[in-house]
Amino acid sequence: MSIAVCLVSGGLDSCVSAAVAVSRGKVPAFLHVGYGQLTQEREEQAFEAIADFYEVQRRLCVSATYLEQIGGSALTDRAIPLPEGELDRPGIPLSYVPFRNANLLAIATSWAEVLEARQIYIGAVEEDSSGYPDCRGPFFEAFSEMIREGTKPETELSIETPLLDLRKKDIVLKGIELGAPLHLTWSCYQGTQVACGRCDSCRLRLRGFAEAGVIDPIPYETRPEGGCD
């Protein structure tokens, strides 16, 4: 069985992406990157819980807090207020961390080469995401070419995006189908004890569970109408 490096933030999408890797018979190596986000400690807690659930032996938590120093995002710069969630808001939201996925994939590629892994799994979602430019298919195609050009000749490493074309509803249903520990995940951009229910991430997640006809198992401060209370 081949090793797959799974980028696991602790959120819903990354958990289900990792579950897909496990279902395909991969030996998972879990990677978590902290970058100074508001809920960094809570996300790391979720990462460890999911890794324990899957009895992952290879797990790595690294720091990329230079992204906090760079700023430019409401998730990393405390001077930029995090706006209320608005799922139909045009443009790129303030929660976008500039070029984050490229940084995460670069770290994953380095570790994958050391482990002689064959795949990197990332829970990126294009259709039902918040409009982040580094969650699109062309971005991952371009990064795959960079991996081919920038790694050892014998390295065979692909980027797997099993959720890329799914809606949040379908991700919830896929997670349930695979027995993923959705109750251990954390998606809120600002809450650490109870999810706020108001940020973009919470609203996307709640809408996905509602459309799937399933109650979201994590606690919320508020569940907007249609949140499958």
Order of helices and strands: EHEHEHHEHEHH
Looking at the overall shape, the CATH architecture is: 3-Layer(aba) Sandwich
Overall structural domain count: 1
Q: Which structural class matches the secondary elements?
A: alpha/beta
General shape = globular
Largest sheet: 5 strands, parallel
Instruction: Determine the fraction of residues in helical runs and give it as a percent range.
Output: 25-40%
CATH fold type:
Rossmann fold
Question: Which strands sit side by side, in order, in the main sheet?
Answer: 3-2-1-4-5
Q: At the first level of CATH, what is the class? A: Alpha Beta
How large a portion of the residues is in β-strands, by DSSP E?
Answer: 5-15%
Distance between the termini: 41 Å
Average residue pLDDT: 94
Please tell me about this protein's structure.
With 229 residues, the chain is α/β, with parallel strands linked by helices. The protein has helices at 12-23, 40-53, 66-70, 100-115, 137-150, 168-178, 200-212; strands at residues 3-7, 27-34, 58-63, 119-121, 158-160. Helix 5 links the parallel strand 4 (119-121) and strand 5. A five-stranded parallel β-sheet has the order 3-2-1-4-5, sandwiched between helices. The protein has a single domain, classed as HUPs (Rossmann fold). The longest helix is centred in the middle third of the chain and has 16 residues, at 100-115. 37% of the residues lie in helices and 11% in strands.
